[in-house]
Specification:
The chain has one domain: Orthogonal Bundle (Arc Repressor Mutant, subunit A). 69% of the residues lie in helices and 9% in strands. The chain contains six helices and three strands; from the N terminus they run ααβααββαα. It starts with a helix and ends with a helix. The protein is mainly α. Strands 1-3-2 form a three-stranded antiparallel beta sheet. The longest helix has 22 residues, at 92-113.
Length: 140
């Protein structure tokens, strides 16, 4: 049970379950919390950029965005200079949902990292970022 991939998978699955259980109270479904977080930071973005940043397939992002648009969390608008480009941004309701989502993330991250010093937290995040970048480089 001490293999890296198994521990990482178990940690991710446990955190994801806790986040989604909390997100369900706000009627958010899979994929929506991370899209809300990204758009709150980015302001607006096209579907391809959202997919890349959130590590979700573009077609899946399209479905998630359609549901989010249907409940008033996001809006899509075509750019005048390039009618093929569609920018997605948060509505006022979406901005509130993003704030609620941030609280969910913070609560669950704090639980996951409890007992770690600030230095250990920084080291863990730095190492996970390096692992992620290593894996991304191998995809190219």
């Amino acid at each position: 049970m001490r293999s890296f991939h198994h521990l990482l998978m178990k940690a991710h699955t446990s955190l994801h379950k806790k986040v989604m259980a909390d997100a369900a109270a706000y009627a958010l479904t899979a994929g929506q919390p991370k899209i809300l977080e990204f758009l709150a930071q980015a302001g607006s973005a096209d579907q391809k950029t959202i997919a890349e940043h959130c590590e979700i397939e573009p077609a899946t992002v399209g479905s998630i965005l359609t549901r989010m648009e249907g409940v008033g969390l996001v809006e899509r608008r075509r750019l005048q200079e390039n009618r093929r480009s569609v920018l997605v941004s948060l509505t006022l309701s979406g901005e509130q949902a993003a704030r609620d989502t941030q609280k969910i993330f913070e609560k669950n991250e704090e639980a996951a990292l409890s007992g770690l010093t600030e230095a250990e937290r920084e080291t863990l995040c730095s190492l996970l970022e390096r692992v992620y970048l290593n894996l991304r480089l191998k995809e190219v």
